Amino acid sequence: MAIISIGHDIVEITRIQSACQKYGDRFLQKIYTPNEIKYCFSKKNPFPSLASRFAAKEAVSKAFHCGIGPQFHWKSAEINHQINGRPIIILDPLGQNLLQQFHGSDILITLTDTLSIASAVALLV
Question: Do the beta carbons of residue 6 and residue 121 sit within 8 Å?
Fold first, then answer.
């Protein structure tokens, strides 16, 4: 499995918490899918999970060399989990199109967070 591209992002958890508090559902609905919102708010503290998903979406967009914009939207990548807890990316048609353009077969993702930051690395393979 050859690595085609890599993307990385890091975000302060308080930045995401502040955006949620300031903009509420408008922020959540713009950035996250219903499945992501449900998952994150099932946690006692949803903000680290929200922040890691924010970072993951940015990381995937960077792996595609386009950033968030007309070619790749916030909801073009949904971060989900396998039964064993491993995070996976589910792409919408825009994301699938980019994956095909790069001749990729998958995007591998890793998420992490501390008390203050969340980070994600995306490998396009």
Answer: yes
pLDDT higher than threshold 90 for residue 69: yes
At residue 1, the pLDDT reads: 78
| Amino acid type, 79 | I
Reading the block at residue 48, the tokens are 């680290």
Q: How many Å apart are CA 6 and CA 72, to the nearest integer? A: 16
Spatial contact of 123 and 63, defined as CB atoms under 8 Å apart? yes
Domains and CATH numbers, the chain: 5-124 (3.90.470.20)
The model's pTM is 0.96
Torsion of CA 4, 32, 120, 123, to 10 degrees: -10
What is the mean pLDDT of the segment spanning 60-77?
Answer: 97
